[in-house]
Amino acid sequence: MNAKTAEEPEGPAAGSDLRAAGLEALRAVLPGVFPEGDIDLRDGQLGEELVEIGLTTVFGSLWARKGLGFRDRSLVTLGILIALGAESELKTHVRIALTNGLTEDEIAEVIYHSAGYAGYPRATAARTAAREALKG
């Protein structure tokens, strides 16, 4: 892995705290975004628990697993988000992919490749989202 790659957690053991594992994985792929220690991700608005659910189920149960490194998980996640047309999430995951060691050229290749499987409109929308993510 190159110096730009996020440090990967060991993965949750059976019975471990998925929230803690999720925070560890989230901090690794988005360095400097979340302060250390326990944090409250709820905002007091409709659906406020959605981020907490994602923290435990997506980052704690999936991203913290052994078996695939963060770089590989980023490649898979980009392809899935492109196929789903989930441009908002794609913007975040483009930044995560860069942290995990993907280059802009590799992200472009994922977008090109997705055109053949998810369709040209999805690839075009993904290109727009990725460009926006890379600006900010």
UniProtKB/TrEMBL annotation:
Coiled coil ranges (UniProt) are none
A Pfam cross-reference name: CMD
Q: Which SUPFAM superfamilies match?
A: AhpD-like (SSF69118)
In terms of Gene3D superfamilies, this protein maps to: AhpD-like
Residues annotated as signal peptide: none
Q: Which domain of life is it from?
A: Bacteria
Which InterPro entries does the annotation name? 4CMD/NDH-1_regulator, AhpD-like, CMD-like
* Stored PANTHER family: 4-CARBOXYMUCONOLACTONE DECARBOXYLASE FAMILY PROTEIN, CARBOXYMUCONOLACTONE DECARBOXYLASE-LIKE DOMAIN-CONTAINING PROTEIN
Protein name listed in UniProt: Carboxymuconolactone decarboxylase family protein
Which organism is this entry from? Streptomyces vulcanius
Taxonomic lineage is: Bacteria, Bacillati, Actinomycetota, Actinomycetes, Kitasatosporales
